[in-house]
Amino acid sequence: MPDLPFRSPKLPQAWFIRNRVAIATRVLAALCGGYFVAYACTALLTVVLPMDRINRVVTANLLSFVVWCAAAIWVFAARSAWRSWWPLLLAGAAMLGVALVFRGTGMRP
């Protein structure tokens, strides 16, 4: 029996394109959506934390990195791109809305 060259199964070209678009949307959601949630969390924590001003700002900024990492993990753990986008946008909008409503009555030094 002659040696036949190895032939890999051919996958349709549309599968590769769909896979690349799905990964690109998740990366975009992790970067942009994660930044939006981290910014909103920073704004909210700056208003509500019961510390003096400089400690509130530093603590909120340090915690924003944790929030951004958690958002990126969430994006790649979600089942679909839509399920990775809408919780980020909803949570970010809610936190930013609360921060903007209470910005005048926030903790003062």
UniProtKB/TrEMBL annotation:
Q: Which residues cross the membrane?
A: 20-45, 57-78, 84-102
Q: Does the keyword Transmembrane helix apply?
A: yes
Q: Which UniProt keywords apply?
A: Membrane, Transmembrane, Transmembrane helix
Protein's UniProt keywords contain Transmembrane: yes
Top-rank taxon of the source lineage equals: Bacteria
Q: What is this protein called?
A: Iron transporter
Q: What is the lineage of its organism?
A: Bacteria, Pseudomonadati, Pseudomonadota, Gammaproteobacteria, Lysobacterales
